[in-house]
Design brief:
Elements: E1 4-9, H1 44-55, E2 60-62, E3 76-81, H2 89-102, E4 108-111, E5 119-124, H3 129-137, H4 139-149, E6 153-159, E7 165-173, H5 178-193, H6 218-227, H7 238-251
Parallel strand pairs: 1-2, 1-6, 3-4, 3-5, 5-7
Antiparallel strand pairs: 6-7
Helix pairs in contact: 1-6, 1-7, 3-4
Length: 265
Amino acid sequence: MKRSLAVFVGLISLSAAAFAASGKEPAPAGAFTGAPPEYTRFSPTELTRGFMALAFGSDLRIGARPRGIRRFDQPIRVAVVAGGSVDRSAAMARVLEEYGHKVPKLRLSTVTGNQPADVEVRLIDEKDFKSALQVAFGAQITKTFVARTDPQCMTSVKSSTKGDIVRAVSFVIVDKGDDVFLDCAYHELLHAFGLSNHDQRNPWTTLNQKRMVGYLSVYDRALLTLLYDPRLVPGMTPREARRILPRMIQDRGLAEPAQKPIRGR
C-alpha cells in the first residue's frame, strides 16, 4: 500500500548495489511494537546511492521543475496544527524535538498561535484526509493525487526554481494506531525537509513505501546530515552533488570503515 505522497510545487537511474550494511540493532526506544530493527553502519556507496535516489525527483511535481537539490536555506519554524479524535500533539512535538536534536543543522524550532511557520504539520483523522486535501489544494488537484497514488499521508512542498524550500505542509493521520501515526510522522518530515522521493529498492530508509519504520533511523539521519551540510546548496545538480558526497561522508564519519557515531554539525 502506498502510504505517502511528496508533492513538489515548483530519478536518476541507479544500478542496483549490493546491500551489505552492518551493525544490526533492535528498533530504538519509543518505536511502535513490531517496528523493524535497523542497521547502523553503511558503506560510502550505500549512503551515496540512497542520497541520490531520495534527494532528487518526487512522485508528483506541479509547476516549474527545480534544478536540483531542494532544502531550506534558513532556520526552520514548524507549527503543529492539532486535530482529529486522538490527541497526538505531544507525540508529534517529541518527533520534532528528536529531529532537531539529532540533525542540528536543520536549525529547527516550533512555533505556536499566529507565529509564521515554514512547515505546518496538520494532525487529522483518516476520514477527513481527502477533505483536508481539497481545502488545501482544491478538488481537481486532490483528485489527481488520490487517483495516482492512493496516499495515506501526504506532504506538499513549495520551492523556488533555485531549489530553496519556501513552505511545506504535512498531513499526518492520528486515529489508525501508533504504528501508522509514527510511520507517517517520521516519513512526512523527511519529505518536508527535502528528501522528496521514495525508493522501494532501499531496505533501510523510511522512504521505502513497502516498509513501516516509525522512528528516525541511523540511515535517514545520515542522509539529512548530508543534505544540510553547507557544502550542498539548493539547486545543486546531481553531478555536482555526486562529486562532493564522498568527501562529505568521510569528513562526518558517516560510513564504514570509520565506524564513528553520526554527528550532526
